[in-house]
């Protein structure tokens, strides 16, 4: 399980010999701070989606995590939260995980006089706003906290040091944009689009291949870090095995983003080359794909793999304006790095108007079973 060195270059050479930009892996971070478009203020939908599976995670810890064995050599349980962003969702999740593990320990060891301690290692890209994360850390919490900057597609922790890993709404981000998408001489050149929604099969396959490579690196890194019998929970957007990707609400948004940029290119607000050279590094796998990459890796047993409805706790119809702001809080950094800053407001304003015209499709795609929960145990 060898480590792969990160690629520091923001430039690649296109098929015609021209140099085009691509977002650096470390540019994939949410908006920091506490402003109008900050992730701190605009991560409510992600929190509701994660809460849908909270009881399922509790059940997995209760039934599958041998806390007595994990604590036999030390009374400190090490927990990693990968892709923590800036809170507050990470704090809620860690509060729950610690509570569930404590409950399981009490159930397994009712006569024990040992008090478990917990250290939570909050991880995200080095450019993540860790200042906001730690200044908003709850004062009263049942764990110690530390920050670990770095890509979770690489090793982050010492060998056999982690007992529990949590990764929520982070693993659908690819480590990089597939390079084939920017090669004009390749069938995967993604002209006029910014994602694989309604794209040729070559584009879809380029994304799928990059996701499979990233997952293999991710699983190999975690296999080195997680103790035997340790648990990993993954929550991420998912695609039902038989559903066309174009039916997802997110795919509708990405399609409208592309058409909005092309409208602005036709008006001279951005260049067509800027649109052609920009692609979102996001992939939504099916349960079958997730099962395949985990089984191929071979270091983990699949204890749970299921689709859930991420909007089951949302009251009433989807608030499209709020949804777009949430997306902006998560993605704006990439757009700013690639396009002129002064066109970002215009793009999101136009995008919101387009989505309002297709409210019924948004509702249908958003409320389907489009969230994957995976629970893995290190063999």
Automatic annotation (TrEMBL):
SUPFAM superfamilies found in the cross-reference section: S-adenosyl-L-methionine-dependent methyltransferases
Assigned keywords, A-Z: Magnesium, Metal-binding, Methyltransferase, Transferase
GO biological process, one term: methylation
Record InterPro entries: MeTrfase_7, MeTrfase_capping, SAM-dependent_MTases_sf
Molecular-function GO term, any one: metal ion binding
Matches recorded under PANTHER family: S-ADENOSYL-L-METHIONINE:CARBOXYL METHYLTRANSFERASE FAMILY PROTEIN
Protein name: S-adenosylmethionine-dependent methyltransferase
Lineage, opening ranks: Eukaryota, Viridiplantae, Streptophyta, Embryophyta, Tracheophyta
